[in-house]
């Protein structure tokens, strides 16, 4: 024990010796009781009035402390500091120094607060630390609280590394210091792995008694990130639920987090609604509730909640974040940025505001500004993978595939189980031509999304990406399966059009022309101005005509040509063409129509003119030269996601270069046909 202080808060206050005389004791005790009752009834001016009178009578250090406490509760922080400094209690009393530091933090006097706290725990190697391990009243150790405040100061001074160490030290000194744990978790200072290692390192058994240690440990474990160990989290939820007679808001919030990370936004919303029914303005739960409303497109609920929050909590960042989310949902990016900016101004460390700020730029293609906002988020929240992941997504938008790969690979070191991250990794692998790896990544996404609602954009884009990856591997059967899955859950819109486009491509490759034509028509019904699909439809129709002409020739040309190799057949057909031309010239000279050759089919079933047969032959040569009907070119970069936390990129196939080459060849063929027709006309003139 040092200076009468054994480490507990109560002993820090009570070691002062009363100074009043026996004569004044009755009156003083009565006024102290009035002061205490007024504090309990939140009548702080009454408490300050009687506290001031008691102090004037006694000039006692305890009364100085309690009057300063009243000033703190009234929000008169400067007045409290002045009183404590005037009585020279900051050096002699740990409790008074602690209260003064609290006041300095409230008034953002960071340097002054750090001067009194010290940059290191001054009791770390002192006998005080050892004696305060088990304070007499079993309360929160003041040493742990001092470490926590030191972390708050470092965090406010943007020294995140030191803040993190201070919060961890506070928990090591006293596991009951929940503020320290909440700061580490809510500010994403630790990765999922680091969070679990911290909980396992805490000495619950020695600091708590009997069953309390296991109970507190489970409570803390329920607060950890929910990207992995979901079975363990579910067991903890069941165990803790059995201990409570009624539903607990923290447990419901933990369950909502599990659903949220699995993208089950409807189930998440059910849990958050229960929380807000029990605790209407639970500010910790509201951000996740807002995002779930956004994902499910509940505009009206989002609108009313945002207005209610602004009315009730105008000085809290989450209120203006809610307004920003509403404007983001209705597509008003300028207003969304305005309110996200206001939320970040109120609290510069409010992560959702920075993420929303970046999304509002990303949706309008302002990549540099979006990256800047995401970079701020990544710097402030080192334990979260979201900031660097969104930076990687922006680089992918700009076709900086290798740079995107660098950021996304780094994200895997922080969290390797987020479905959105795995999907982005798959898109990068696809763009790098690593189709087998892309398939593996997308299958992992599907595994992680098991249990989430099927009819949402996440399943659509994941299946589309997987289908395109299978298509590039030549696995058209599996590609068709996943394109059809997307088509089944999408009634209309971009996802259905993309699925039908993909189906049309693979049907065209597989020479299933009728089905390809049907798919392209469905796409054009949704996107009438899609030039690529229009061009592909034109090509498949042309190819179908060529194939039909070939079938007609096989049926109508002389029987002796059937079964003859294609090269010989073309040579003999050319002889027939020459003979027809010669007969046509002779007939025109004599003024009579040409007689059909004895080896030809009846006139009613033949083209009847040399020009028509010439075009048919050109078609045969084209089919022979081109081989397969279409070879899809590499897809473009993935389309940007549309939402705050989740919504995956789609791989969209494009064939511009291939189509340009095809168009050039067709122009050359048309020119050749025109030359042949002109030559036929010249022969007619002759």
From TrEMBL:
SUPFAM superfamilies: TPR-like. Residues 579-611, 639-686 are annotated as: Disordered. It holds the Pfam family ANAPC3. Residues 600-611 have a biased composition (Low complexity). Keywords: Cell cycle, Cell division, Mitosis, Repeat, TPR repeat, Ubl conjugation pathway. Residues 655-686 have a biased composition (Acidic residues). GO terms for cellular component: anaphase-promoting complex; cytoplasm; pericentric heterochromatin. The keyword Repeat applies. PANTHER family: CELL DIVISION CYCLE 16,23,27, CELL DIVISION CYCLE PROTEIN 16 HOMOLOG. This is Uncharacterized protein. It comes from Lobosporangium transversale.
């Amino acid at each position: 024990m040092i200076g009468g202080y054994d480490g507990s808060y109560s002993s820090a206050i009570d070691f002062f010796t009363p100074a009043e005389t026996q004569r004044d004791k009755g009156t003083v005790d009565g006024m102290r009781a009035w002061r205490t009752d007024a504090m309990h009834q939140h009548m702080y001016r009454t408490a300050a009035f009687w506290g001031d009178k008691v102090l004037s009578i006694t000039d006692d250090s305890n009364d100085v402390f309690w009057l300063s406490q009243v000033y703190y509760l009234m929000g008169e922080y400067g007045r409290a500091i002045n009183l404590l400094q005037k009585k020279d209690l900051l050096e002699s009393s740990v409790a008074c120094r602690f209260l003064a530091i609290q006041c300095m933090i409230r008034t953002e006097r960071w340097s002054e607060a750090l001067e009194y706290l010290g940059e290191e725990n001054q009791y770390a190697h002192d006998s005080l630390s050892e004696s305060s391990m088990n304070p007499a009243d079993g309360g929160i150790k003041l040493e742990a609280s001092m470490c926590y405040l030191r972390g708050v100061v470092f965090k406010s001074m943007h020294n995140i590394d030191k803040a993190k160490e201070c919060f961890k030290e506070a928990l090591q000194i006293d596991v009951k210091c929940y503020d320290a744990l909440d700061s580490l978790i809510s500010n994403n200072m630790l990765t999922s792995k680091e969070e679990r290692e911290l909980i396992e390192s805490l000495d619950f058994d020695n600091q708590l008694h009997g069953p309390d240690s296991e109970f507190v440990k489970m409570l803390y474990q329920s607060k950890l990130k929910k990207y992995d160990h979901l079975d363990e989290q579910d067991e903890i939820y069941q165990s803790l639920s059995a201990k409570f007679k009624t539903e607990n808001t923290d447990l419901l919030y933990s369950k909502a987090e599990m659903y949220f990370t699995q993208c089950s936004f409807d189930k998440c919303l059910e849990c958050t609604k229960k929380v807000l029914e029990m605790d209407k303005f639970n500010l910790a739960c509201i951000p996740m509730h807002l995002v779930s409303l956004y994902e499910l497109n509940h505009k009206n609920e989002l609108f009313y909640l945002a207005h209610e929050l602004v009315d009730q909590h105008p000085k809290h960042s989450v209120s203006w974040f809610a307004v920003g989310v509403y404007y983001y949902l209705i597509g008003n990016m300028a207003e969304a940025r305005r309110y996200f900016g206001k939320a970040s101004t109120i609290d510069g460390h409010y992560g959702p505001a920075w993420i929303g700020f970046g999304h509002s730029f990303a949706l309008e293609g302002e990549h540099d500004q979006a990256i800047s906002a995401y970079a701020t988020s990544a710097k402030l929240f080192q334990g979260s993978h979201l900031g660097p992941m969104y930076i990687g997504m922006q680089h992918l938008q700009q076709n900086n595939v290798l740079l995107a790969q660098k950021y996304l690979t780094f994200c895997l070191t922080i969290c390797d189980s987020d479905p959105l991250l795995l999907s982005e990794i798959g898109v990068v692998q696809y763009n790098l031509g690593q189709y087998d790896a892309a398939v593996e990544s997308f299958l992992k996404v599907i595994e992680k999304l098991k249990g989430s609602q099927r009819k949402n954009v996440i399943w659509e884009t994941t299946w589309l990406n997987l289908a395109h990856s299978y298509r590039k591997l030549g696995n058209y059967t599996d590609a068709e399966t996943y394109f059809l899955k997307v088509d089944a859950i999408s009634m209309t819109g971009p996802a259905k059009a993309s699925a039908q486009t993909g189906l049309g491509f693979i049907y065209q490759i597989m020479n299933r022309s009728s089905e390809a034509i049907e798919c392209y028509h469905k796409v054009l019904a949704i996107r009438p101005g899609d030039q690529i699909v229009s061009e592909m439809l034109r090509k498949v129709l042309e190819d179908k005509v060529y194939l039909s002409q070939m079938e007609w020739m096989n049926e109508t040309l002389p029987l002796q040509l059937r079964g003859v190799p294609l090269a010989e057949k073309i040579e003999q057909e050319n002889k027939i063409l020459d003979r027809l031309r010669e007969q046509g010239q002779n007939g025109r000279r004599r003024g009579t129509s040409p007689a059909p050759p004895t080896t030809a089919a009846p006139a009613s079933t033949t083209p009847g003119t040399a020009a028509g047969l010439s075009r048919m032959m050109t078609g045969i040569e084209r089919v022979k030269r081109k081989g397969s009907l279409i070879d899809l070119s590499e897809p473009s970069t993935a389309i940007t996601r549309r939402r705050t936390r989740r919504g995956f990129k789609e791989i969209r196939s494009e064939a511009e270069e291939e189509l340009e080459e095809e168009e050039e060849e067709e122009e050359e063929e048309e020119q050749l046909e025109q030359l042949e027709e002109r030559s036929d006309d010249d022969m007619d003139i002759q």
